[in-house]
């Protein structure tokens, strides 16, 4: 009788150790958010929300997206991921979520925001991971995902990929509502 009990306890200890190890990065290296800013007139009918964590790569990516839309008839609001809970998805034509893979999964705040808006279909999620090959598995069919390593040489390429997806959503919205 002791043998199955020892195996069960050992398996439980191993499971808990793995879970703690996967969560350790959130505790040791907590994610910071970008500083918020706005581009163009908030009265513009076409509106994009960009929510991002802070890193040199992510900040450069956000700046490239900002630069692309600057002077165009598109309002762009950039916030930290932590500010998502104060935003209404319906206020935006497209929402861009830029974060890091955490414990082999999407950032929990990003996932929570997407899951609380099951009927919003204009999400673009860019997730960075070590090699850039991991794509977030999100149970929301209408989320366009981009994966990337945080390699500065790839900023222009990844920002163009993001802008292409954003523009696709904006064009679909313009066609649907005009």
Can you tell me about this structure?
By secondary structure, the protein is of the alpha/beta class. The protein has two domains: 1-30; 37-177, Flavodoxin domain (Rossmann fold, 3-Layer(aba) Sandwich), CATH 3.40.50. 40% of the residues lie in helices and 20% in strands. The chain is built from four helices and six strands; from the N terminus they run H-E-E-H-E-E-H-E-E-H. It has a six-stranded mixed β-sheet with strand order 1-3-2-4-5-6, with helices on one face. The longest helix is centred in the first third of the chain and has 27 residues, at 2-28. The chain is elongated, with a radius of gyration of 19 Å. Mean pLDDT is 82; it is low at 20-28.
Q: How do the strands of the widest beta sheet line up side by side?
A: 1-3-2-4-5-6
Shape: elongated
Low-confidence stretches: 20-28
CATH topology of the largest domain: Rossmann fold
Q: What's the quick description here?
A:
The protein is an alpha/beta fold and 178 residues long. It is built from 4 helices and 6 strands.
What's the layout of helices and strands?
Blueprint: H1 2-28, E1 37-39, E2 46-52, H2 56-69, E3 74-80, E4 94-100, H3 108-115, E5 123-128, E6 143-148, H4 155-177
Parallel strand pairs: 2-3, 2-4, 4-5, 5-6
Antiparallel strand pairs: 1-3
């Amino acid at each position: 009788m002791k043998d199955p009990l020892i195996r069960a306890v050992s398996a439980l200890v191993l499971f808990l150790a793995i879970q703690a190890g996967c969560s350790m990065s959130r505790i040791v290296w907590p994610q910071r958010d970008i500083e918020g800013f706005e581009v163009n007139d908030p009265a513009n009918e076409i509106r994009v929300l960009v929510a991002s964590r802070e890193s040199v790569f992510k900040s450069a990516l956000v700046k490239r997206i900002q630069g692309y839309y600057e002077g165009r008839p598109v309002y762009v609001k950039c916030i930290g991921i932590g500010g998502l809970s104060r935003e209404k998805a319906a206020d935006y034509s497209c929402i861009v979520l830029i974060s890091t893979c955490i414990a082999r999964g999407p950032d929990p705040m990003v996932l929570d925001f997407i899951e609380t808006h099951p009927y919003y279909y204009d999400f673009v999620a860019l997730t960075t991971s070590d090699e850039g090959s991991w794509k977030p598995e999100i149970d929301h069919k209408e989320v366009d995902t981009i994966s990337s390593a945080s390699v500065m040489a790839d900023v222009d390429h990844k920002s163009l990929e993001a802008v292409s997806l954003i523009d696709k959503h904006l064009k679909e919205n313009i066609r649907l509502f005009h």
